[in-house]
Structures are given as C-alpha cells and as structure tokens.
C-alpha cells in the first residue's frame, strides 16, 4: 500500500520543479509548499497535484479501503521525467512552457465543468 501514492508524489514533485517558485525564485520545493505566501502563488496544477497526493495519503488510513487497497500500484509514468528534473538534465524554459500548457488545460477543463454544472442547474425544473 505504500507504493500506491508514488505516481501522485512524483507528479507533485515534477510540477513543483517546473513552477516559477523553484525555477525562477530558486526556492526549495518544500519551502514553496510550507510558506503561505509562496503557496498562494503556486500554479493551479500544482495545487491540484498536492490535493490528489494528500487525498491518496489520507486514503491509506481509510478503513473502508483496507481490503481492496488505496489505489493501483505505481505505473512508473513519471519516472523518466522525475529523474531528469532531479539530476538537472532539463531546459528551464521548456519546463516552464510545459507547465503553462498543462495549467491552461486544467483551467479550461474546470471552466467547462462549471459551465456544464450551471447548465444543469438552469435546466432542472424548480420543485
């Protein structure tokens, strides 16, 4: 069960490494997460990855998931990217661009979901 949050942890680490807080301001990822001022400036994608990681960690203690497990084991999806970022084998401008694209996609998905929700609320008859 300990390896079930491995993908979420690596996704969060990659997002933090790509964030302006680490790349431009040269803060540590830990400082970006613990300092309230820096945490407010994190990209939306990093906040979403942090939330997913924390939900996964909390799920490890959820007794309802005790028999079937918290989540599938790690897929290794982020291993290569994580290794490149950890060893310094990356182009900072390219990583910032990737984060911007991912962040924009997340924002668009949220806007679409909110629009669908509003359409449902407007289409439902008042009881």
TrEMBL record:
Pfam families named in the record: Pet191_N (PF10203)
The keyword Lipoprotein belongs to this UniProt entry's keyword annotation: no
Domain of life: Eukaryota
Keywords: Coiled coil, Disulfide bond
GO CC field: mitochondrial inner membrane; mitochondrial intermembrane space
GO BP annotation list: mitochondrial respiratory chain complex IV assembly
Residue runs in coiled coils: 92-119
PANTHER family noted in UniProt: CYTOCHROME C OXIDASE ASSEMBLY FACTOR 5
UniProt family annotation: Belongs to the PET191 family.
Protein name: Mitochondrial protein PET191
Organism the protein comes from: Suhomyces tanzawaensis NRRL Y-17324
């Amino acid at each position: 069960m300990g390896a079930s949050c491995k993908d979420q942890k690596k996704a969060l680490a990659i997002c933090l490494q790509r964030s302006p807080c680490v790349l431009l301001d040269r803060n540590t990822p830990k400082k970006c997460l613990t300092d309230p001022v820096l945490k407010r400036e994190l990209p939306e994608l990093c906040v979403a990855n942090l939330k997913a990681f924390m939900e996964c960690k909390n799920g490890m203690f959820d007794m309802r998931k005790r028999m079937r497990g918290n989540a599938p084991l790690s897929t290794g999806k982020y291993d290569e990217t994580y290794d490149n970022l950890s060893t310094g084998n990356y182009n900072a401008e390219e990583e910032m661009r990737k984060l911007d694209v991912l962040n924009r996609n997340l924002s668009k998905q949220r806007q679409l979901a909110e629009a669908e929700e509003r359409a449902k609320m407007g289409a439902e008859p008042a009881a």
